[in-house]
């Protein structure tokens, strides 16, 4: 499944709208046009403890990991990654404008021989119009 996992330091919740960031990331993944809507998962976890950079308490991080099925071209993944990272940068513009924040993003391909899945959402979406599927 296209899994977008956001990890962030505890201080970031006061400096950024995490639910809005999740929505922006979801929209960017949809907009990329190469991922099945029913397979998309976006979730965010706050680290219980974090030491960032030089260890100043005002330092924060957000780390985005995106796990996708293998088989797409590097060019297609690169273009999708550019879109998703741009959405993250826009949503996190305020902390990025300070000297106390670091943002990272990585795409990882899932080994098809070592992963399993069953998803009932695809069939439901196939029965809807495209517009309705996006809510
Ligand atoms: O294969 C994967 O796990 C990733 C994927 C799609 C997954 C689903 O559609 C699913 O789990 O139902 C992908 O397109 O990258």
Q: Tell me the fraction of residues in β-strands, as a range.
A: 15-25%
Structural class category: alpha/beta
CATH C-level: Alpha Beta
Q: What is the C-alpha radius of gyration, as a whole number of Å?
A: 16 Å
CATH superfamily: Macrophage Migration Inhibitory Factor
The CATH topology annotation reads as Macrophage Migration Inhibitory Factor
Average of the residue pLDDT scores: 94
Quickly count the domains: 1
Please trace the helix and strand order, writing H or E for each element: EHEEHHEHH
Count every helix, treating DSSP H or I runs of 4 or more residues as helices: 5
Structure, explained:
Keywords: Isomerase. The protein is of the alpha/beta class and 135 residues long. The protein has one domain (3-125): Macrophage Migration Inhibitory Factor. Helix content is 35%, strand content 24%. The chain has five helices and four strands. It has helices at residues 18-32, 74-91, 93-96, 121-126, 130-133; strands spanning 3-8, 41-46, 60-69, 101-110. A four-stranded mixed beta sheet has the order 2-1-3-4, with helices on one face. The longest helix has 18 residues, at 74-91. The model is unreliable at 131-135 (pLDDT under 50). Residues 1-2, 35-36, 38-39, 68-69, 110, 115, 117, 119, 122 line the site of the ligand O=C(O)C/C(=C\C=C(/O)C(=O)O)C(=O)O.
């Amino acid at each position: 499944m296209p899994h977008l996992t956001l990890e962030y330091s505890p201080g970031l919740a006061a400096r950024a709208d995490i639910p809005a960031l999740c929505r922006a990331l979801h929209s960017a993944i949809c907009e990329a046009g190469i991922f099945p809507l029913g397979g998309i998962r976006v979730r965010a976890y706050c680290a219980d403890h974090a030491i960032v950079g030089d260890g100043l308490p005002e330092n924060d991080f957000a780390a985005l990991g995106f796990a996708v099925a293998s088989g797409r071209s590097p060019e297609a993944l690169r273009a999708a990654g550019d879109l998703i990272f741009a959405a993250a940068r826009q949503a996190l513009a305020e902390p990025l404008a300070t000297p106390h924040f670091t943002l990272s993003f990585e795409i990882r391909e899932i080994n098809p021989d070592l992963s399993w899945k069953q998803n009932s959402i695809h069939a439901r979406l196939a029965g809807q119009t495209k517009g309705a599927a996006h809510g």
